[in-house]
Amino acid sequence: MSSKPIIVVLDYDNASDALSLADRLDPTMCRVKVGKELHTAAGPQVVEALMARGFDVFLDLKFHDIPNTVAGACKVAASQGVWMVNVHACGGKKMLTAARNAIDSVNGNKPLLIGVTVLTSLAQSELLEIGLDANLPASVLRYAALTQDAGLDGVVCSALEATWLKDRFGKAFKLVTPGIRLVDDVKGDQARVVTPVDAIKMGADYLVIGRSITQSADPVATLHKIYNDLKTLEMSK
Predict the structure, then answer these.
(1) Contact between 123 and 95 (Cβ < 8 Å)
(2) Mind listing the pLDDT tens digit for each residue in 182-207?
(3) Which residue ranges make up each domain of the chain?
(4) Nearest to 160 by CA among 125, 135, 191
(5) What are the residue numbers of the active site?
(6) CATH architecture of 6-235
(7) Most exposed of 35, 38, 127, 235 (fewest Cβ within 10 Å)?
(8) Contact 140, 169 (CB under 8 A)
């Protein structure tokens, strides 16, 4: 199991709420994710504020554009000191390679560079609507292979795909898994969901967890429970 596998999603429309929750969380137990909503509202300043509080930041902006534009964005993100950044694998190998080269050109610690395969909100029946005629696992596999060929560090995928992705691409290839829900949670807008413990058993390296923590009655207690459950799992191996 990866060190600190829990990534708490800070999907807020303002910095105040995001930092208020962050101040209650323990950066030795989790990392945090800044996505499009929070970054659009608060900009890079909120990333800096979170890092100043000791958090590793996953900058989840899913860059997808022409290679030069994506390279520039990745270079800026790396220069800011984020821990992880992601790009859409469907941008193609030239774009992925440009992103890899941009990250590598930055001095100092380099963020993990992760490719997005098929969004966990998408079900098999929706692939045809976006022009993908392959089945869902085949689409994920194609994107993951493209991502590894371009030298990226891993992919965002469903934990349901983690076991065979690990078998195919090796332990060093990092798997970042959204769609994590606790046993009693509703699915929300996720079509492919898994519990934290089961996700790790399936081969996930990092668990992206949002509403299960942020909208719980006691986010701190929920984080502690998930953390302790994963520690128990690790000790039982």
Answers:
(1) no
(2) 877 655 554 456 899 999 999 999 99
(3) 6-235
(4) 191
(5) 62
(6) Alpha-Beta Barrel (3.20)
(7) 235
(8) no
